[in-house]
């Protein structure tokens, strides 16, 4: 799925992103763009400026850094080289664990109230549902009994019931009912289902994919615009037939817009294809940020920020020339 700002979302993508390498083939895309196009418009006009922005948060495949050896790339990410290292062609890598990250699952308001929702993060099948207390629960989408998909089951009084033999699970994955057991038999601990931590933040449900490490709440991405009074959220959801890394790189790749978006919106004209300048202001082992713009204008009015595995924000400030 993708939450898209139709105003800015490109219609094509065709490039691959090389960041790190979780083991996956197929994905559910989940992006979270937004625009404050209408945000406090009067105030914006009075200041002769308004801003337009989009954010992306996505789950999916990430390709291996091409120079790392098989097996190493899963746990490594390139870090900022010094100019001396770049000159020598040397690169430094840092440890990276793709499971110790938050991944956006769904728009919170769109999670069904009466049925489990099957999703996929990399190669992990998970199931999301609202329990009897209206809390979100996220389990491995695999029944501990005979491995049926729990997402194909049903909700009974806030418990998730497997469609095969009717085992029921609640809360932290505890099995609370096995219809075939004698009344005096105890349900074994091995009947519990594996769980994942989920959090609702700014209208998006995020999942922490590490089964071993406690969730790091400080890592949940925060989009400042969503918290502003008057911010208009126009997020929507789309299923995309490719992984999120392709979408992320497409959204970073402004050079394609004049050509592939020619006349599809008011900003795109093929005759505007030209060199772009990007001034990197921050590089870390999880991403980068910087200002970019047309080289010939000499200005860099756009600010782009990427943070692995799935956050991209692009802000553009436009001066309204109609207001004196
Ligand atoms: S497979 Fe789920 S109850 Fe048997």
UniProtKB/TrEMBL annotation:
Q: Which Gene3D superfamilies match?
A: Rieske [2Fe-2S] iron-sulphur domain
Cellular component terms per the entry's GO annotation: chloroplast
Which InterPro entries does the UniProt entry name for this protein? Answer: Cholesterol_7-desaturase, Rieske_2Fe-2S, Rieske_2Fe-2S_sf
Listed A to Z, the keywords are: 2Fe-2S, Iron, Iron-sulfur, Metal-binding, Transit peptide
Q: Which GO terms describe its molecular function?
A: 2 iron, 2 sulfur cluster binding; metal ion binding; oxidoreductase activity
Gene Ontology biological process terms from the UniProt entry:
protein targeting to chloroplast
Looking at the UniProt entry, the stretches that span the membrane are none
Q: Where is the Rieske domain?
A: 102-207
Kindly indicate whether the keyword Transit peptide belongs to this entry. Answer: yes
Q: Which Pfam families match?
A: Rieske (PF00355)
- Protein name per its UniProtKB record: Rieske domain-containing protein
Originating organism: Vicia faba
